[in-house]
Write a structure and sequence with these properties.
Blueprint: E1 4-5, H1 19-28, E2 33-36, H2 45-55, E3 58-69, E4 72-79, H3 86-112, H4 118-125, H5 134-143, H6 150-158, H7 173-182, E5 186-189, H8 202-213, E6 217-221, H9 227-240, E7 243-246
Parallel strand pairs: 1-2, 2-3, 5-6, 6-7
Antiparallel strand pairs: 3-4, 4-5
Bound molecules: adenosine monophosphate and manganese (II) ion (3 copies).
One manganese (II) ion is lined by residues 9, 14, 39, 135, 251.
């Protein structure tokens, strides 16, 4: 089966590497099908395309959209999109404005906690004020020794109920799926095991809504999943008729658990998401 990594980040969102570094790393690890899926952004794709072409990698245009489902936020990867489609352009514009407002609010909250330079520090690590993520604040708090790890920042400051957390109302899951489909893409639930849906109807309720909205696939093989969870989500694919996706969710060599392309193959019993596309990938 084709070596694929369909979930990676660059420095236009909260990844540490630029598009070229991501594509080169994928090439070095013999990835043949690579998707760049920045959070609410597509700005790295134009830069990645010629490099991928030169290195013989098929680049899949992607995005990881932040969405709202019931009382939680869900990440929906859009694969094989036309990233210039107006539906994507307007989703990106809306997210940029939300991120800009949210980052200022987070900066104020952290200043109240005594970290007066958190906003400026996080901004210096981001590509723009409109692309600021919790990751940039977390990196700043680790770099300045406030916390020992990214995980510690999230559990002390950046999760719901913690003093640096700002709730954001992202677009509804169904609308997010519609955005991706309008742009010709396949909507994929990112790292499904990561959501705590216990009080919200469970994964079954979320997958039912996703399917009804036109969702096409879920990530089965990703670093957030244990081997037992590969089987759990493979079974969900069969139950709901979803295709399966695979991705490292690579952010940086220091912070990510696995390198680009460093994943086991999808179980042979599942339909890989790329098999649902018109182009045939050998
Ligand atoms: P945002 O999109 O600004 O809400 O930031 C979410 C990002 O924070 C995710 O995409 C992850 O990259 C990162 N993240 C979330 N939870 C954690 C955690 N516990 N440890 C490290 N990074 C995290
Ligand atoms: Mn991220
Ligand atoms: Mn995600
Ligand atoms: Mn991601």
């Amino acid at each position: 089966m084709l070596s694929a990594d369909l979930h990676t980040h660059t420095d236009v969102s909260d990844g540490a590497w630029c598009a070229e570094e991501v594509v080169r790393a994928a090439s070095a690890r013999s990835v043949r099908l690579l998707a760049i899926t920045d959070h609410d952004e597509v700005a790295a794709i134009d830069a990645a395309r010629p490099i991928a072409q030169r290195l013989g990698i098929t680049l899949v245009s992607g995005i990881e959209l932040s969405a709202q489902w019931r009382e939680t936020s869900i990440h929906v990867v859009g694969l094989n999109i036309n990233e210039k489609h107006p539906a994507i352009v307007s989703a990106v514009a809306a997210a940029r404005s939300m991120r800009k407002t949210r980052a200022l609010q987070m900066g104020e909250l952290l200043a109240t906690e005594g970290y007066t330079n958190a906003y400026a520090g996080a901004l210096a690590l981001a590509s723009s004020e409109e692309r600021m993520s919790r990751t940039h604040f977390a990196r700043f708090l680790v770099n300045t020794g406030v916390c020992g790890s990214m995980g510690e920042v999230f559990s002390r400051f950046m999760k719901p109920g913690k003093p640096g957390y700002v709730a954001t109302l992202w677009p509804e899951l169904a609308d997010t799926v519609a955005t991706i489909r309008a742009a010709g893409g396949t909507a994929v639930i990112a790292h499904p095991a990561r959501y705590d849906l216990q009080w919200l109807g469970g994964h079954a309720a979320m997958f039912n809504d996703f399917k009804a909205a036109g969702g096409g696939a879920i990530e089965v093989i990703c670093p957030a999943h244990s081997p037992a969870e590969w089987s759990v989500f493979a079974a969900h694919c069969r139950k709901y008729g979803f295709a399966a996706s695979i991705g490292s969710d690579f952010h940086s060599p220091r912070e990510s658990r696995v390198a680009i392309g460093d994943l086991p193959r999808l179980p042979g019993s599942l339909t890989p998401v790329w098999d649902t596309w018109n182009t045939h990938y050998a």
